[in-house]
Amino acid sequence: MSESDTEALLDAIERIDERLHDEQDYLTELDSRIGDADHGNNLARGISAVSEKRDDLAEMALDEAVKTVGTTLVSEVGGAAGPLYGGSIMSASQELDGGLDAESALAFAEAYREKLTERGGARPGDKTMVDAVTPAVHTFQRAIEEDDLPPVDALAKAVDAARRGVAYTVPLRASKGRASYLGLRAVGHRDPGATSTLFVLEELLATAEAHAGEASATDASADDAVAHGDSADVDGANPGDEHGETDDAGDA
């Protein structure tokens, strides 16, 4: 795994860990309305276990490291979230065996969506995390393949699509999971799995933006050095509303 891939992965894990712990009570509150009231606690426990493996992950190839994240979540996260999150990550990790770039990121996203849908049996409109993942992946694909956007810009559009997908779950009647037993009582509440998916995507975007900014700063420093005739230094340049609580259904 390249040094930049390593730094990005570890940074993403740290950001996601902090975010899921910050949102732990909120996610549990959401889950108390239509589920087992354990989604936030389960995810917080799982991401803590991942963070504890930080030193080991830093020494692995990217695909192996991401697969280890998945296996850890499967073993540590209770309920349906462990197999859905972790199992899908494990399956998609093989798409990263050549490193991280726009093509492999898209392949990972598509494989993750396919495995998530297959494993959970859910489709868009069932009031699950699929309602956030599907529009995000489709938007990311269009932004990369059709609009030819830089990966960070494509990811920003994907996060916006996921945000609309979360809002889309509010008026839905659940068709999968414990929420499906509530019938109309599940209407009016956002899905906790879709919400936690959005939080993870937001932190992945923050990571991508931070590392893209570091790369831009390095390039700018190198260009400035060349402009001032300091070419000897160029090769050594170093990189220097809270939950969107609206019940309006978006276009997922």
UniProtKB/TrEMBL annotation:
The Low complexity compositionally biased stretches are 212-224
Ranges for the DhaL domain? 7-206
Can you tell me which residues the record assigns to a coiled coil? Answer: none
Q: What is its EC number?
A: 2.7.1.-
| UniProt KW keywords | Kinase, Transferase
Q: Which InterPro entries match?
A: DhaK_L_YcgS, DhaL_dom, DhaL_dom_sf, Dihydroxyacetone_Kinase
- Give me the Gene Ontology terms describing cellular component: cytosol
Q: Which GO terms describe its molecular function?
A: glycerone kinase activity
An example Gene Ontology biological process: glycerol catabolic process
**Top class in the EC scheme:** transferase
Ranges for region Disordered: 212-252
Q: What is this protein called?
A: Dihydroxyacetone kinase-like protein
Organism field: Halarchaeum rubridurum
